[in-house]
Amino acid sequence: MMTKRLLLLLSLWLALAGCAGSASEQVSEEHVRYLESFGWHIKKKTAERTEVIDYFPERMKSLQIAGLDLEPYKNQEMLITTYELKETQSSEDKNERKMYASIYEMNGTIIGGFGSLEGWTPGYFALADKERLIRDGIMEP
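^ thats the sequence. predicted structure below, dont judge the formating
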């Protein structure tokens, strides 16, 4: 009887532990709405991290060009969530190149975000540039 209870408790604990891992992969509805307001669609969450914004000036400038001005947030901690997008890059060799969007938040408020192209350096783009990316043949319509 004691063994059955122990097995039951162990099974329950393992089931709960398995559920806990999926919580970090959950997609925020606020993020879905934010990206959809620019015409983007989330495929899956790829990363979530907290960083202090102490980037080199070159990176700050690149992000600013991509529509994300972090200058007012220097030396402050932000939550950065990165998603793989359903949209893909145009490719002559038929290899699917991924596109990503990163969202910056402070105290639960979205500050902004930017997109990035797999295989490009730096490959940043403003989230509002979807039509330009299609027009320039960088991504599939």
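Helices lie at 2-23, 29-36, 57-65, 130-135.
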